[in-house]
Design brief:
It is built from 12 helices and 10 strands. The protein has about 290 residues and is of the alpha+beta class. The strands form 2 sheets. A 5-stranded mixed sheet has the order 1-3-8-5-6. Helix 9 crosses helix 12 (about 280-290). The longest helix is centred in the middle third of the chain and has 20 residues, at about 125-145.
């Protein structure tokens, strides 16, 4: 078993823009290169128009169907499985590309680009797909023609695409009070993603956010129906499973990396929420997965 390879955005975009858009036919060489498990340090959106395929995203096989959208966020483990016949468009980008134009408007505000969505995947109606496709084609033309202010145009088009996708993933209209609470949860999730290896308790995050732990927990329950502590645990467990499966590290090394000084406590923590020990989880996945062959 080889260690997981971290793929930089520049390896896929082949530029310093931290953004690229491709027709799948042009992206095929990258798919062939990345048909082994790899970790993204970028976001990826696949708009598939025709034919079928499959991919592995964080231990689960995900279908690629006609008129479907797949969104992947920074840090996920990915592997292309069946991909040579799909037809559509692929966007890859870093948060920095987006933030250069929208400084106070972070990608974390789009919940389908966060770890809370286990696998953001949708099949959508033809007319909705055609709208997304039209934006992708516009982006592709801007990207290829490289005319004046094309970077600004690409950021604006990306924002438009993300807003449309958000309407599909989060179709319920939000009132002002709910939107403010949602923004707080997004900020909390950003902090978790940044500090989960060092900070394991709600009170630590509440302190950074200058709010009471009980209030933070109440907002999380109201907005996403998940307790604040569970959001933290879910992020720690997700990374633990990634490391167990894809890295050549002992359980003790993984426990230390995730901020557990006591290896046995990490084992109890993992078993309590996954109903299996870390070692048993690793053996079970590798023995039963037909995809994890490098």
């Amino acid at each position: 078993m080889n260690e997981i390879k971290n793929i930089k955005c520049s390896e896929v975009t082949q530029n310093e823009l931290k953004f690229a858009v491709y027709h799948t036919s042009d992206f095929l060489p990258f798919m062939q290169k990345l048909n082994i498990p790899h970790r993204h340090n970028y976001y990826m959106i696949l708009l598939n128009e025709k034919n079928t395929g499959s991919q592995l995203i964080d231990f689960k096989e995900s279908p690629i169907e006609p008129l479907s959208v797949t969104c992947m966020y920074n840090g996920q483990i990915h592997q292309w499985l069946d991909f040579d016949k799909i037809e559509g468009y692929i966007l890859v980008f870093e948060s920095d590309f987006f933030a250069l134009r929208y400084q106070n408007y972070q990608l974390s505000e789009f919940s389908f680009l966060t770890y809370r969505h286990k696998q953001p995947y949708l099949k959508i109606a033809v007319e909705k797909f055609e709208r997304l496709k039209s934006i992708a084609i516009w982006m592709l033309n801007e990207y290829k023609n490289n005319e004046a202010d094309y970077e600004k145009s690409l950021r604006s088009l990306l924002n438009l695409l993300l807003i449309d996708l958000n309407r599909l993933f989060e179709p319920i209209p939000k009132n002002t009070e709910f939107s403010q609470s949602l923004q707080l949860v997004h900020h909390f999730e950003e902090l978790i993603d940044k500090h989960y290896k060092q900070k394991h308790f709600v009170k630590e995050y509440a302190s950074i956010m200058y709010i009471r732990p009980n209030y933070l927990n109440s907002v999380c329950n109201d907005v996403v129906n998940i307790a604040a502590g569970e959001l933290i645990r879910n992020r720690i467990l997700l990374e633990a499973k990634r490391l167990l499966i894809h890295e050549q590290k002992t359980v003790a090394e993984i426990a230390y990396e995730l901020g557990f000084e006591d290896n046995s406590y990490f084992g109890r923590f993992f078993k309590k929420y996954e109903n299996i020990t870390p070692d048993a989880f690793k053996r079970k996945f590798i023995n039963t997965s037909q995809f994890y062959q490098i």
